Amino acid sequence: MFKKILIANRGDVALRVLRACQDMGIATVAVHSTADTDAMHVRLADESVCIGEAPSAQSYLNIPALISAATITGAEAIHPGVGFLSENADFAGVVEAHGLTFIGPRIEHIVSMGDKVEAKRTAAAAGLPLVPGSDGAIANLSEAQRVAKSTGYPVLIKAASGGGGRGMKVANSEDDLSEAFSSARSEAKAAFGDDTVYLERYLGNPRHIEIQVIADAHGNVAHLGERECSVQRRHQKLLEEAPSPVLTPDERAHIGGIAANATRSMGYLGLGTMEFLYENGEFFFIEMNTRLQVEHPITEAITGIDLVVEQIRIAAGLPLSFRQEDVHFNGHAIECRINAEHPTTFMPTPGKVSDFHAPGGPGVRVDSFLYSGYRIPSDYDSLIAKIIVHGDDRAHCLARLQRALDETIITPMPTSLDLHRLLAKDADIASGDYSIRWLEEKFLPNLEASQTADNSKS
Ligand code: ADP
Questions:
Q1: pTM score > 0.85 for this model?
Q2: 4-85 CATH fold
Q3: Weakest mean pLDDT among 46-60, 156-170, 290-304
Q4: Which of 31, 52, 226, 439 could cysteine-pair with 59, CB 3.0–4.6 Å?
């Protein structure tokens, strides 16, 4: 086992990895920018190294500085966390070239899953069901017209190098196709420097359901069930739950088995997430994330398996500490992402936290780097806390969620805590009746309408 690991990240995920290392008796090296000198991950690590200025490009994305930090501290492995360099094949390559271990999958899988056209091809070959659409990239408008006609409208033009929902355009009919095709290409070129696009049928009202998979170097593969991540705004997840309120045990075993078989046939190593859209009882693969996910704690809550410990064990060449038949799903878990942003305008609200009080009690876990007096920098992602609750069943979990959110204090800035308090009491959430369009097309418009009505009364 490694004696010392460098954590190439910040925020809640840096703390998450640090805690796993401490549980395993592994020494930790934190890295930080000049904006993060007082950050919690720096305070709790055994050693820390300043790797550059506040902008990520000069610090958390600065590969030479990260490698130097690992070398001077004698770290043997690097955990990339989530975001930043976690899906950067060049970084993984440089880490390995310096005789260090990258705690993540094989480089070939980071590369193949990083290009969406290639990812779909790999997924199809591994037996995963795809959204109907083009077989690879679309070269010109007439090819797009031909494919769209056989797929059926509406269709979605997507960027091969896409991410964060950019470079995606919907065409409702052939009349819209030319405009959607050219604007998706130019947006993709501007955002990713690559104008390769492909085409998919646009699903009307799907849910986002993803399967957690894991594989070691000894041929052991398992799936850890699903996470339902349909509560989204601009393709960003806000609240996730496990299990999904709509899957039956048979459907779970079926899609889990398909995902585990695909993992095996790809020769995948480590932790991965296969994302699917789910509509009318059918699953359609959209992408695979070759890293730890922000929402991993809900899977940990219902399986009792520490995913970060497993990642580190796999990277060290050890076998999985469990087998598929040992995986049992216990109760229900929900995660709320608390962001330093206004609950309804979603404008970022960085600044100094005067008071922070985390909730507690049975079934509550908080992954956060906040403390009273901490200044949230404006340079990074707005995620400041994850509140994860676990209950015997979904109703019990929702009751605990309301309790946990009511106990939480973060002042003085507005945060998404208030939005989550409303979500936790919402009738559609209680019944599980929502899709990826629900928040933006129903919940937020209703909220705005009720606020306007309240304002006109007062
Ligand atoms: P990105 O990497 O940019 O996040 P994804 O392929 O994961 O791109 O898609 C992001 C989101 O866009 C999905 O979670 C879903 O909300 C929506 N989406 C993607 N593909 C389709 C599709 N074929 N039909 C309908 N919605 C889609």
A1: yes
A2: Rossmann fold (3.40.50)
A3: 156-170
A4: 52
